[in-house]
Design goal:
heterodimer, A: 55 residues, rod-shaped, B: 542 residues, two-stranded antiparallel sheet, globular
């Protein structure tokens, strides 16, 4: 019974992962979000540097 | 050889970009760019095309000589490069050619139609991007070489949403009267919850209901784009929401002024109603101007109500992220609902909103990077000649029809040479800023009255007043640049998302979203109509 539940959970996880891979180049949405956040913070820092701090 | 053939699109796109970059650099395209008003982006066009073109060629060469592997470089750079370049070329074509052409066409059609179709239908890069994506996917289909690159669209769109936070500031919200904030807050949250409830009633997917509730409640297109990844809405659900809110807005834009006039609303009441009931900013402005083109108060109040609604976006994002986490979470503990399910990129959006509110990018009282500088300084002065023109016009009696506030503002402009508070009161910053803003408002109303021929204003006086007003309207370079980044991220992401919308998917959504949007919109318009007539008498601002 327990093993059956485990199998179902594993299949659901697989479907989730495959859906995720079909929508994104990232392995998980968490990675995608974190990368977006880091890229944006770097962009913001560069924009501030060249439009405010160094001007 | 086979590898090279597979990489032909990369070489072709890289080549096209390089050729365009070189041609643009010679200045041959300048007349066309001037006609399209894109000449100020000439340097950007050259740099972007040359850099991306070189990257395309380089990527093509590397892909040809190297066997595909399962490395990070392959997954994130080499495989998606073709699709990324395609989306960027389309984004550039839309930003630099299609959007300006639609604007020009819409301007030419204005005398016939009576309104700018570009503004009313919101035909900017957002909608055009989705439409181009939909068109491609439903005609030629997504090219095989672009499949991996299109998968980066959601990621780039999230970057755009994070950048969106830099455009708003909490200080702008705090500046408004408590009364109007409560009124708008009630309607925004009320509409969101009404749509969520209707979604349950019509058994619609949570993803569709979530994105539609934000679109109907807050400010239309940008709210929809920001919330779509939060509630994991599918591309077609996002497109459906945008379609619903824009079509509902068009109907409102024509009906609101007629109803307002029929029941005899005053300018402030109509401004409050339009700002609350109509969703799209451009449609709000069009309705306010259709109701009353002379009294600038209508447009101002409508815009203030509209801005306040937009400022609720961070709150709504939080509410919907929590709601979606709760709906899809199996255990209802606080940690699993809010911490585990909360989208990390929304933290980025809130972080930039916080930076913006603290004044890191611009004075905290800005809205979309624009702020009014009525402090006493050299940067906001008019020229000595303009001052002389104003002085002799007032003394010679060339201006007539002004009320006492307008006359006082004009006299002070001559006295101080700029729009500002009373120099003697400059230690009381709040009072100084308020007097300055009131004077700017009075000068704006002079121009509106002159347009309606209620005030006699010589041409050179009009130009001096216009210059004085322009001088106090400042724009933060930091926010403008961050906004430019956001626009590119959105343009890229939305074309990619548009490419995921097939005819079949649109048909599957059925008519329920339209029905839910219609019910929520009509309820909000009716309730706000009653509340505004009942509560809003004249003054809604502090």
């Amino acid at each position: 019974m327990n093993e059956n539940k485990k199998d179902i959970k594993t299949t659901e996880d697989n479907i989730d992962e495959m859906e995720e891979r079909a929508l994104s180049v990232f392995a998980s949405e968490r990675n995608e979000d974190l990368t977006a956040l880091i890229f944006c913070l770097i962009t913001t820092f560069l924009v501030l540097l060249f439009t405010k701090w160094l001007v | 050889m086979a590898e090279t053939q597979k990489n032909t699109p990369l070489f072709v796109m890289g080549g096209i970009l390089l050729v365009y970059g070189f041609i643009a650099n010679t200045g041959v395209l300048l007349p066309v760019m001037k006609y399209l008003h894109t000449h100020k982006y000439l340097d950007l066009q050259v740099i972007m095309c040359l850099v991306l073109g070189a990257l395309g060629i380089l990527g093509g060469i590397v892909n040809s000589v190297r066997k595909p592997q399962n490395t990070t470089l392959d997954r994130f750079v080499l495989q998606p490069l073709g699709g990324v370049l395609l989306l960027l070329i389309l984004a550039m074509a839309i930003r630099w050619y299609l959007e300006p052409m639609v604007k020009i066409l819409s301007k030419n059609l204005q005398p016939t139609l009576g309104f700018k179709i570009y503004k009313v239908l919101n035909l900017n890069y957002v909608v055009l991007g989705i439409l181009v994506g939909v068109l491609i996917t439903n005609t030629i289909g997504i090219p095989k070489f672009a499949a991996a690159g299109v998968k980066t669209a959601r990621f780039v769109l999230k970057m755009g949403v994070i950048m969106l936070g830099a455009r708003y500031s909490f200080a702008e919200l705090a500046k408004l009267g408590v009364y109007s904030v409560w009124l708008i807050g009630f309607f925004v949250l009320g509409t969101v919850f009404l749509v969520l409830w209707l979604g349950g009633l019509f058994k619609q997917p949570k993803t569709m209901t979530g994105v539609l509730s934000a679109g109907m409640g807050v400010c239309g297109v940008s709210a929809t784009v920001a919330v779509a990844p939060v509630v994991k809405a599918k591309s077609e659900e996002m497109a459906y929401t945008i379609g619903t809110i824009l079509s509902f807005g068009i109907i409102c834009m024509f009906i609101f002024p007629t109803i307002g006039k029929l029941v005899g609303m005053n300018p402030v009441q109509f401004g409050a109603w339009a700002g609350t009931g109509i969703l799209n900013s451009a449609q709000v402005a069009a309705a306010a101007l259709a109701f009353n083109a002379v009294d600038i108060k209508t447009l101002k109040v409508a815009e203030i109500f509209n801005i306040t609604r937009v400022l609720f976006l961070p709150v709504i994002v939080l509410v919907l992220a929590t709601w979606f986490g709760k709906e899809s979470g199996q255990k209802l503990s606080f940690k699993s609902v809010v911490v585990d399910k909360f989208p990390i990129f929304i933290l980025g959006f809130l972080l930039l909103f916080l930076f913006s509110s603290l004044g890191l990018f611009s004075p905290p009282t800005h809205y979309k990077g624009k702020y009014i500088d009525v402090s006493y300084n050299d940067r906001t002065r008019i020229t000595d000649e303009e001052r002389e023109v104003l002085k002799s016009a007032i003394q010679g009696g060339a201006i007539s029809g002004l009320n006492s506030t307008q006359a006082e503002a004009l006299n002070d402009l001559v006295k101080q040479g700029q729009i500002a508070g009373n120099f003697d009161n400059r230690s009381d910053k709040k009072l100084f800023a308020k007097v300055g803003q009131d004077r700017m408002f009075a000068l704006e109303s002079i121009l509106a009255a002159a347009k309606a021929k209620q005030v006699k204003l010589p041409k050179d006086v009009k130009s001096a007043v216009k210059h004085a007003i322009k001088q106090v309207h400042k724009k933060s370079k930091t926010v403008s640049t961050l906004t430019d980044c956001m626009i590119w991220f959105f343009a890229f992401g939305l074309i990619g998302l548009g490419m995921q919308i097939t005819k079949k998917a649109i048909m599957q959504a059925g008519g329920f979203p339209l029905l839910m949007g219609g019910i929520a919109g009509v309820t909000k318009a009716t309730l706000s109509f009653i509340v505004v007539l009942w509560l809003v008498k004249d003054v809604v601002l502090k």
